[in-house]
Amino acid sequence: MAKERTLSIIKPDATQRNITGKIIDRLENAGLRVVAQKRLKLTKEQAEGFYAVHKERPFFNDLVSFMTSGPVVVQVLEGDDAVAKNREVMGATNPADAAPGTIRADFAESIEANSVHGSDAPETAEQEIAFFFKDDEIVG
Ligand code: UDP
User: Fold this and answer.
1) What's the complex ipTM?
2) Where is the active site (predicted)?
C-alpha cells in the first residue's frame, strides 16, 4: 500500500457542536495522521470554488450557505491508502445510509450537515490539498 495524502474538512455543524476533537480521534484511530491543519471561515468565493464541480446541482446554493455558516477545520491526512481509508471512516454522504460506527453515522445531522468532507480520489485529493495548503505548510 502506498502512503497517500487526502484533504479533510470538519464542517460547520461539527465546529458548532465543539466535536472536532472527537472527529480527529476517529481519524487518528483509523491510522490517519494529521500533517497539516487550520481553522478558518470560508468565504462565499472559496466555498463556491471548492465545490465548483457541484455548481449545477440543486443543493449547490444551500451547500455554499452551510459551508460559510461557521468555522471549518481543513486538514491534510496522511497514511496508507489515505483517500479510501478516510472515505471508509467518514461513511456514506447521507447519514441514514452510513455504516454503524462511521463519523457520519454517529455525528452527522443531515445529508447536508454531514460533519466531514473527504477527497474522493487521489487526483482530487491533490487538487483539494493545493486549494488550501502550500507545500511548506504540510509537515509529514
Ligand atoms: N449534499 C447535499 N445534498 C445532497 C448531496 C450532497 O447537501 O443531496 C452536500 C453534502 O454536504 C455533501 C456535499 O454536498 O457532503 C458534497 O456532495 P458529494 O456527493 O460530493 O458527497 P461526499 O463526497 O461529501 O460524500
Assistant:
1) 0.99
2) 117
Which residue has cell 477545520?
73
- CB 8 within 8 Å of CB 114: no
Using most ligand atoms within 8 A of CB, pick from 59, 67, 90, 120 the residue to mutate for ligand 1. Answer: 59
DSSP code per residue over the chain: --EEEEEEEE-HHHHHTT-HHHHHHHHHHTT-EEEEEEEE---HHHHHHHTGGGTTSTTHHHHHHHHTSS-EEEEEEEEETHHHHHHHHH--SSGGGSPTTSHHHHH--SSSS-SEEE-SSHHHHHHHHHHH--GGG---
- Which tens digit of pLDDT belongs to each residue from 5-28? 999 999 999 999 999 999 999 999
Nearest CA owner, ligand 1 atom 22: 93
Catalytic residue set? 117
